[in-house]
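Appendix B, Record 12. Input sequence as logged:
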Amino acid sequence: MRQESIQAGKIVGVHGIRGELKVQPLEEDAEFLAGFGTFLLEGKPVKAAACRVHKNQLLLKLPGVEDRTAAEALRGKLLYIRRADAELPEGEYFDQELLGLDVYNGETGECIGELTAVEHYPASKVYTVRGVKEFMVPAVKDAFILGVDLENNRMDIRVWEGMTE
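Logged structural output:
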């Protein structure tokens, strides 16, 4: 099921003395996050007064956060984006949207488990599926991932011999 909001980043520190926040992106890169004008902080929408990328982090200025002390009070808080505001390429999804999907053998239609984790490796993402046994599936379209249907909570995969054992 498509989510209303996506965890975008965590406030990990302060930059300077004028209340600029250092945000560590959680899924996408800082450039992606810099394209958003509105974030959700503690469930409330906040418009960014300014944002820029610095050393793979997002530097974010929020209204009402005018000094280092006010910014420090926000350290550790999570920032969210509205899913409706995020445009991903066709067939791409946020990791958070995939967690909990039922995973099916694309050839037999048999439910073989639930997607429980998404790991990022240099070559590709890898999905952990927990069924009778826990196994991993490379997140490679067409080779392993045959289809994702968020509305029906379903992912179809190509099962290779020995994969689920």
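The longest strand covers residues 5-15.
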